[in-house]
Amino acid sequence: MTSQDSDTTSSQPFTPGQARVYTEVNEISQLTRALRKAGRPVALVPTMGALHEGHLSLVKAAQTIPGVTVIVSIFVNPLQFAEGEDLDSYPRTLDADVEKLKAVGVDAVFAPSPREMYPNGPRTTIHPGEAGRILEGEHRPTHFAGVLTVVNKLFAITNCDHAFFGEKDYQQLILIQQMVTDLNMQVQVHGVPIVREADGLALSSRNIYLSDEERELALTLSAALTAGSFVADRGADEVLATARSIFDAKPDIEVDYLELKGLDLGEAPEEGPARLLVAARVGTTRLIDNVGVPLGTGFKGLDEQQQ
């Protein structure tokens, strides 16, 4: 399909797999409308750039849909940053990002400016509800309204029928699924497992802020989550106590929260799947992580069920 038969305004043709960059709402919308009209599924991978293997795992998951066109958005969304957060310093590496996307065969990149996304300013936002008040919402009260608003806009702009998000931002994933359900959006939301370094550190664009010493200290997050999850057969109290003991041994880490929740972020069950979530500051860098916890059965119980 070329730009001429997709009604895009650019003179350059659209070539699948070439990660062509679109910066205007109308242009990417015209392209994706034409694709959908032709019966082609469109999958969106929303990112803020500074791409790493975690982002590329989302792309690869999206590419498994038969006949799909994969769009990656790169937009550092000002609405989800509160005053004093790292909006200005957040890494912006568009050229390098596009090269990575081209290497894995992404079809198109949507990289708008803030003015293109919010030409009239942030007038209308989406309220995340009660599930947006806890965990991250307690520490970043305006964050999820900004996230849901931009995701809603990106869904509408790209005409996608699939969207892929990483489980590292687990609360974000749950709230986006909630929004899609509650607002009757015709988008299927896919969660993709966390990608980690060999030593367990969850991949994050913010990891580049860490000094060598801080990066070593940051391993405490995954170590605490792993330790907690491995005593899942002993119940919720033991999971939390074990994870907290790991942090207690590292007083240089400032923990914002360490909580065990149900998969829907409600109360954790006495027995069954749950999620252990943490946010902590290592130096000046705030990191989040989480892990699935099979409460009451433990991983041994899961192994037995699979046999």
TrEMBL record:
(R)-pantoate binds at Q80, Q172. The keyword Transferase does not apply. SUPFAM superfamilies: Nucleotidylyl transferase (SSF52374). ATP binds at residues 48-55, 166-169, 195, 203-206. Pathway: Cofactor biosynthesis; (R)-pantothenate biosynthesis; (R)-pantothenate from (R)-pantoate and beta-alanine: step 1/1. InterPro entries: Pantoate_ligase (IPR003721), Pantoate_ligase_C (IPR042176), Rossmann-like_a/b/a_fold (IPR014729). NCBIfam families: panC (TIGR00018). HAMAP family: PanC. This is Pantothenate synthetase. The lineage of its organism: Bacteria, Bacillati, Actinomycetota, Actinomycetes, Mycobacteriales.
